[in-house]
Design goal:
By secondary structure, the chain is of the alpha+beta class. Among the domains are: 125 residues, Schlafen, AAA domain (Methyltransferase, Cobalt-precorrin-4 Transmethylase, Domain 2, 2-Layer Sandwich); 64 residues, no CATH class; 97 residues, Arc Repressor Mutant, subunit A (Orthogonal Bundle), CATH 1.10.10. It is 38% helix and 18% strand. The longest helix is centred in the middle third of the chain and has 16 residues. The termini are far apart. About 8% of the residues have low confidence.
Length: 487
């Protein structure tokens, strides 16, 4: 790109404009962020809003001053390209920074713990401890999900759930677990990797508190009034179908079960959404803390948010062109073996191609507050209560699901029926429900009883705003009671 092209472009992940050097700290933060994230250019001597070239007084002196500022203020040492260029008779300074192999860089005045910055869109963001560690791992070529968990053993893996996912395609003996990097050798012992616990850990959320998925269906186009929600924390490969079940439940048009395979039954692009969900599960930064993966269903769009900004050197435009880098190779390898991923690096490009084929608005990818948001727009508004004013959530739930209760009843498993029976008379916590069902194996309860019941909207949490609360209890919904009457 020429300097004229830069002046016509908006500020972005790798481009910023400065009027002068009167506020060097902000400029230095930007250079640090560029070096830590994906490189970029700062053009100095340009009016902020109009992009009109103002020029730099005494450009040679300012160039020397800038180079001294960079050398004195940033660690490890950063050596950008600083060039002078002329536009309309005005001299501008262009500072180009490349993605650094010495990252994380930081401002010396703020120190290595608080002076690290990354680039999000057209802004700089202070990196927290987890993100700083991620930047270091990337330089060292170490992936978070390949790291050992030395305090755990193979007994902490739900091997039966893993074998069920692989079926007859691969016997998960010790050698295959090592090949898949679900186990690794650490101090002469075999221990699970972090990826293994994320995929098939018996107590995943105890070790990774945010490694679960929160699904919500809201009224209208704003995330204000919630209509339905569920918490999903099963093995990651199983989560794909659990999330799709939640989305299908709210896209269901009242068709007969025999018609559900017809494409025109669904009012949402299931193929695109499945790809976006898989992308979130495979590429989420599970080292980050703060919130789970979120699936938000609104009348006009569906948003999928996962933790972590793009890997260093990757931009949103790169993703659209098919560029891909794997953040979690252990998780990605398992998803590939299970045919959840067809071919490396084609997922995002396929999403955009299918959106064009379906004549949908172009999907949107955004980096927001250390999270990546993928937005899929619907072809037509998908209101919960068409032709009716906003209803109370419980009334709307009854109205929206009553017509499908008969079909849902036919699909209810024996395990779900048993759970509905023990919740018929009172609310129960997980341990109480397991005791009533005569179960001792927590994953069996979660994956075969609890999650299917939540996904179908047959039960609900008493504390929906605190899904992982130790005092969480479960109760029947109106839909669950209607199903019970038909059982």
């Amino acid at each position: 790109m020429s300097i004229d092209d830069y002046l016509q472009a908006p500020e972005s992940k790798n481009l910023e404009f400065k009027q002068d050097l009167s506020s060097p700290r902000n400029l230095l933060k930007t250079l640090v962020a560029f070096a830590n994230t994906a490189g970029g250019r700062v053009v100095i001597g340009v009016e902020d809003k109009s992009r009109a070239p103002l020029g730099i007084d005494n450009p040679l002196e300012e160039e020397e001053r800038l180079c001294n500022l960079i050398a004195d203020s940033i660690s490890p040492r950063l050596v950008p390209n600083v060039e002078m260029t002329t536009v309309d008779g005005k001299t501008l300074l262009v500072v180009e920074v490349f993605l650094s192999n010495s990252r994380p860089h930081f401002l010396r005045a703020e120190g290595p713990d608080t002076g690290v910055y990354v680039r999000l869109g057209s802004t700089n963001r202070q990196a927290d401890r987890e993100l700083i560690a991620e930047l270091r791992r990337a330089v060292e070529g170490v992936s978070f999900d390949e790291m050992p968990m030395p305090d755990l053993s193979i007994d902490d893996l739900d091997i039966s759930a893993a074998q069920k996912a692989f079926g007859n395609n691969r016997l998960l003996d010790e050698q295959n677990l090592l090949t898949l990097k679900l186990l690794t050798r650490h101090q002469k012992r075999l221990v699970p990797t972090q990826g293994a616990i994320l995929l098939f850990g018996k107590e995943r959320t105890r070790h990774f508190a945010d490694a679960w998925i929160q699904c919500g269906r809201f009224f209208g186009t704003e995330k204000i009034d919630i209509f339905d929600h569920c918490e999903i924390d099963g093995p990651l490969p199983q989560v794909v179908d659990d999330v799709m079940l939640f989305l299908k439940k709210h896209a269901f048009r009242g068709a007969d079960l025999s018609e559900l395979r017809r494409k025109d039954v669904w009012s949402i692009p299931l193929g695109i959404l499945r790809e976006v969900i898989i992308n979130a599960l495979v590429h989420s930064d599970y080292s980050q803390r703060g919130a789970p993966i979120r699936i938000v269903f609104l009348d006009d769009r569906i948003e999928v948010e996962s933790m972590g900004i793009l890997l260093a050197g990757l931009t949103i435009d790169d993703m659209k062109q098919g560029a891909s880098r794997i953040r979690n190779p252990v998780i990605a390898r398992v998803f590939k073996e299970l045919h959840l991923i067809e071919q490396w690096g084609t997922g995002v490009r396929r999403i955009f191609a299918e959106a064009r084929e379906l004549k949908l608005p172009e999907p949107k990818i955004e980096e927001i507050a250390l999270r990546l948001r993928f937005t899929i727009f619907l072809a037509k508004p998908h209101a919960i209560t068409p032709g009716v004013g906003k209803a109370h959530p419980k009334q709307a739930t009854k109205h929206a699901t009553e017509h499908a209760t008969e079909q849902v009843t036919e699909q209810v498993t024996e395990q779900v029926k048993h759970l509905l029976s023990v919740l018929k008379s009172k609310e129960l916590g997980r341990k109480e429900a397991m005791l009533a069902l005569g179960l001792k194996h927590r994953p069996t309860f979660v994956y075969d009883y609890l999650q299917p019941s939540l996904a179908e909207g047959l039960i609900e949490m008493t504390q929906p705003d605190s899904p992982t609360s130790p005092t969480q209890r479960y109760r029947l919904t109106e839909n669950g009671r209607m199903v019970m009457e038909r059982m």
